[in-house]
Amino acid sequence: MASDTQSVPQGAATRLAGIDATAPILLFDSGVGGLTVLEEVRKALPDAPIIYAADTAGLPYGTKTEAQIAARVAGLLGRMTERLRPRLVCIACNTASTIALGMVREVLEVPIVGTVPAIKPAAAMTKTGVIGLLGTEATIRQAYVDRLEHEFAADKRLLRYGAPGLVEAAEAKLRGEPVDPALIRHAAEALRAQSEGERIDTVVLACTHFPLVEAELAEAFGPDVRFVHGAQGIARQVARLTAGQEYSRQGPDLALFTGQGELPGAYAEKLAHYGLMRIERF
Ligand code: DGL
Question: Which of 26, 52, 240, 256 could serve as 86's disulfide partner, Cβ 3.0–4.6 Å?
Fold first, then answer.
């Protein structure tokens, strides 16, 4: 599995010198999708203090406008970096990254790693030359995705489908609820129904939520389809940008959720699996 990640602008790496060993890595997503990235970051950097932040009050991003998403992401990350003082921010969300990465980098003084659809590795993997791309509705219409297609898959056929139902399915699964098989089936059928869709052999999971339901998708697509997403590549990029830094974890890692009210109890157990033993509202 490989990925396309965005490196920090030149010069940002030099600002990493003299980092406080307790400074966390901040992973940000609209919901629980970024946990698929957290899992890989944890493997790459087991000693790193991590804060996982989910904008549950803004979930889902995929059905919002570009302006709404950009405003939320830039505003929240501004407040979060001020309050939490991370050494690096990872936007573990394709929707937020493809829309707001450039803007956020303009305003924040901290290195930022984004998440963009893994079209490049998918183009290297496909044998039939037909690639499916499942993302949110907002992601699949981005010029950023057009550029990746043009650069890495110009000689392939890339079929896109915006699948908000899969975000819902992944969130339900993390709450400990059963996944509605119709949501999964619908996403697979929507790609297969497009011209040449029956020849798809590689599917890009272009939303960090979707690897959470990869097993269910694999069943719906059948054994001849392989999936690719960016989590491992993102973790490698985070490790590269923090190479040589010291880590000191003062307590259990923290999960932050925007919005009000009680979080479902089932979350706590799942979050503990990802090493997030403290849960708070932001
Ligand atoms: N996890 C997000 C992504 O990677 C988006 C989910 C949503 O809020 O719609 O695109």
Answer: 26
**Ligand 1 pocket: which residues have CB below 6 Å?**
29-31, 33, 59-62, 93-95, 136, 139, 167, 207-209
Tokens of 217: 């998708």
Tell whether the torsion through CA atoms of 236, 238, 240 and 243 is positive or negative: negative
| Contact present, 103 and 48 (Cβ < 8 Å) | no
Report cis status (omega within 30 of 0) of the bond before 60.
Answer: yes
* Residues 5-116+232-281, CATH architecture: 3-Layer(aba) Sandwich (3.40)
The two tokens of residue 11 are 């010069």
Query: Is the whole model's pTM more than 0.85, yes or no?
Result: yes
Active site residue 93: yes
List the domain boundaries for the chain. 5-116+232-281, 119-230
Among candidates 265, 282, 231, which has minimal Cα distance to 55?
282
As a CATH number, domain 119-230 is: 3.40.50.1860
